[in-house]
Structure formats: structure tokens, C-alpha cells
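Can't paste images in this forum, so I'm doing it all in text. The chain is below; anyone willing to post the predicted C-alpha cells underneath?
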Amino acid sequence: MLESGADQVFALDIGTRTVNGIIATYREGWLEILAQETAEHQGRAMYDGQIHDIPRVAGAVAQVKAALETRTGYPLSGAAIAAAGRALKTWRGGATLEIDPLREIDPAVVRALEFAALRQAREEVRQQGQGAGDFYCVGHGVLTYTLDGLELTSLVGHRGRVIGTEVIATFLPASVVNSLFSVLRRTGLEATHITLEPIAALEVTIPEEMRLLNLALVDVGAGTSDIAVTRDGAVIGYGMVPLAGDEVTEAVAEACVVDFHTAEKIKRALGTEERVTFNDILYNEVTLPREEILTAIEPAVDRLAAAVSETIRELNGGRPPKSVLCVGGGSQTPLFLSRLAVYLGLPENRVGIKKRAQLAGILAPAEDTLAGPEGVTVAGIALTALKKKGQNLIRVEVNGREHRVFNPGDLRVVNCLSLLEYEPRTLFGKNGRDLRFFLNGQEMVVYGELARPAAVRVNGAEADLQTPVKDGDRIEVVPAQIGRDAAAKVGDFLGDAVPLRVFLNSQEVSLPPFCRLNDAPADPETELKDGDRLWIEGRYTLGQLLALNGLDPGAVHVTVNGNPAPLDYLLKAGDAVAITEGGPQEDCTSLAEAGNRSLVAAPPVEETALADVVRVTVNGQEVVLSGQATPLFVDALRYVELDLSKPQGKLKVLLNGRPAQYTERLKSGDAIEIRWE
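Text version of the structure:
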């Protein structure tokens, strides 16, 4: 009799042909098996690892449970189980995300990227299996990261515009798990832990310290062969072949003309007997040499080895691993190991069987009925449950909706969201687009609004994507908010421009800055766009000052700071302009003669510049410029009918057939061309 304890576990390996059960505990690094029992299904209740006849499978489980209850002396209410790898689907998924090029990539963005790739893989699996119901993700690994098309091993800390990743993920149909639960309910049991058979076998056969090696584990059962591949310290993929020991048993039955049960006995005898005696379906006693039966089953063994080899290579990137470890009762099939070595191109000593009795860290009963490879998986199920690494189905609530999620032992918020219908792009925001333009030749940047990251709460408390999740937790996710794009007007920058202040007849006059946008006069309300060129200047000529005040240069006498000045004189802050009636403006060709050395020299003013009007042509149309003695090229722009706010190519600006400067003086007869080309 044994005493029941929280440190003990009832583990069940529900296989295609048999059900193995053990009571085990974990002490000081050892898995101690306290009791064990085996029962065969009555008839073929399971095919290829899938439960077909639930009552029959439940009968075998009940038989194992009753025997163990008798040995231990206490009732069993919970069991650790494993789902067969039969329906496992391994899929590659990829995703790309546009990011802010000015911000460093942080781990949250990388997790959101992986989340998007997992979601894409899950959707493709669901589309491939139309009508198969939902799928659980039972594991994934990252294959590559890319930054603007360049492959990297890590994205954290980098900057760029587009990040991408490719992942390999393994999915299990929910229907497989539900059938296992139905069997347990019929026997009065509840699932305390659930894992996958290849994961369980890995736990005891290839511990973590061995996973740096490129190894393949093949669990050959009766109906399926489950495969896992390790490399660089991690499991890089799981696979399954719907062929196993039953395929060979059926070949024996056909060759020897016997029923399936007898064929199974013959197959097992091939490992120890040179001549095998049996009764065929007509009850004739037949004795055949071992070699004759091996020849008959060789095609079936070849198909099994070829299929397993192909899946191993696919999971391992197209190449064979360094070694292959085989477990499960079907691994003892004659010829299988040698044929598998041939198909993988490995020496025969690199492909072998791992018996439970050979594994370190397992203390079995003196009379060990499961000492061979058939006892490995059930021991792994017990160990994963005792070390609390099992895959558990737990219930979580996400934004008010309840879901059942696989718990890999370290379940976090991001894992839950990756399995649910949640859009990954909503987890992290994107800053508003920046506005870049040129102000007086200098590049300016108006930054877009910063994004607000997603808010995560678990059971009402602040959390993040890495917060651990347990059964019954309530997760709330408020999507991130995208920042608004930057916007600005011409007038937003007039505040930095100082008006030109001069004195006109002792009265202060404030001349506002003059705005040009992409070489055209601009209104303060004009919206700026990326790449715009804005000029804000406080430059006025004496002639422009007179025109703004409605004065006729030919009818007044003008001095600047007490000295005569030409009409194209550029005013400076503080200049004192005096205007008196009587006669035209004097011709000032020499500032030295005027006796005012504080004025900036200006080119001589031609006689035609002092006329009341200047007649020019703008794009073939005559234009009269009046009100100032010496108009500049820029003054003619207001007569251009082109919509300069909507560029239609490169702007061609010509004066008398040559490229023009906007500060050039105009005279009568000048021909101006302004057009798109």
C-alpha cells in the first residue's frame, strides 16, 4: 500500500494498441515509479493514434486505473495525459510591420511582430483544415528576423522602417484534446496536466543540456510515429508520420494469412526466434523461417523508414541530424533502424533505440514490465507533470470573452493574445508622420504626435505583454492609439520673423514679413507639405514703401536719414524716411556725393526705372506694373495664372529667355516666362 500525496502523479499514455499507466513521484532529481500497469484495447478502438471508439478506450483506461488503485490503496481522481502527435501541424508563418524609423526597436515591438506571424500561421492552418475546428498552438520558434530586408539575429535596439520575421509553429486540433477528455470523464478522472507525446518523450530522453546537439527523437507507436528535432538548445520542430508498427503488423497478417492479433505476436517473435510457428485463419499450424517473413514485410518497413526520414529532414532544414534516438514499442520493428540510417545517410551506430532502463534519473520497480522503449513516453508524461511543465488547458477571459488556452508552463499575456482573434497591430502604436520642409534654406521638422501604447490589465491591475497568466485570469487590452500626423501653416512661422520698422515723416511704420512658398507669394493660411521651400523675408525697397502708402515717386521729394536715396534702396530697421512735396526724386548715382556713408550701395537707377509705369509681358500677355519706380521680378508673380500650390513638374522661370533671379529689376519691354515642364 502507498500513501497518497501531492507530490505523486498518475500518468496515462493512451496509445493505439495499449494503455500504460504509472504512479510516480519526483525526489532529489529522480523520477521514482511507485506502481505501473498496462492494458490492451479490446479490438481496434484507435487508429493512427486517434480515438475512434471512446467507450472501448475508456474501458482500457478504467482497467489500468482500477489495478493501480488496488496496488496503491487509494482512489485516483486526476491524471496527467498526452495528446498524440498524429494531428500535429507544423507551419511556417511570416509577418512584417512598418515602424517609426526614428525610434529604437524595443522587445514589445518584437513580441508584437512574432504575435502577428503566429496569427498568420494559425489562420493558414485553419484554412488548410476547413471544418477541422479550432487549433491550439503548442509551441513555436523564430527562424529569422529582417530589418528593411536585411537578415538579423536580433532586432532590439535597431532602427528602420520595416521589420519582419518568420516563425515555425506547431498546432494541435481541439478535437484531439476533446476526445481525450471524454475518455477521462467516463472513468471518473479529470485531466490535471496535458502535454504532447513527443514533448513528454523528449523530457526524459533528450534533457535540456543535450539539446545543443542536432538530434532527432522518433517515438514509433502502433499507429503513428511522432518526431521532434533539437538544435542550438531548443526544439526547432515537431512532426508526425501516420505510419508505425501497425503498418508492419498488417503486412505480416497478409503474408501469413492470419488475423491482426496473431500477426502482432508473429512480429514480436521475429526479434528473438529464427523460426516462427503459428496457426493461420484455417487453424493450420505453420512454421516459417524468420528470413522469409522479413522479406515479406520489407516493403512496409521501407515505407515507414522513408516517411520518417523525409519528415526529419524537413524539420531540420533539409539535412539529416547528427543522431536519431528511437523510443516506443514500434521502434523494435525488425529492419527499421537499419533502413532509417540508410535513408538519412547516417552510420548505423548513429540510429538507435533508447530503452527506459537505459535512461538516467529514473528509478523503476524491481520487476519492471515497461523497461523497454515502450515505457519511455509514460515516464515523460509523469516527469513533465511533476516538474509543472505540462501543457495545460486553462480558462482566461480577454476583454469580456472567455477562452480555453494551452498553458506551456510559462504562459504570458502575449501568448494568450497570439492564439485568439486579436489584431497584433493594435498592440503598439505608430507615431504621426513628421513634416519636413525648408525655411529660409534651413531644413525644419515638425514632429508628429507620439503614439499612446496599448494598455494591459490583468485582474484589474496594470500589466504588460509579459505578465504571467494563470487559470481564471481576466485580461483587458485597450488598443494603442496612433499619433496624429504633423501639420503646419505658413503663418505658424511668422512669429519668429521680425517686422521691418522704419520711420516715415517721424511716424513709425511696421512692415510685415514677406512670404514666398515654392517661389510664389504665400498666404499665412496656406498648409505646408513635405519638401516645401518657404522664405520669410523683411526686405522692402524705398519704392515699395512709397507704393504701400499710395505716393507717386514723381511728385514727391524723398530722403533717407537726411540724404537722397534711389527708389531701389533696401530699407534697414530704423531708417528715417522724409517725404516732402515738390518736384521729382533726384537722380542719386553716387552715394559719396550724397554725403551719407551709412547707406548700403545700390546699383545706379536707369532713367526708365523712374517712369510711372513699366510694361512687361508675362507668358505672352502684356502686364503694366505701376506704383513703384523699379519693380522686381517677384512683383510680376501675382499676374501668373499657374496654380503654384499644386506642382505639375519642374517650374521654369525665364527673363528674356534666360533663367531669372527673383530679385532682378524689371524694365519696360522685359519678357517673363513662368511655366511647368
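Residues 490-676 form one domain. Residues 290-315 form the longest helix (26 residues).
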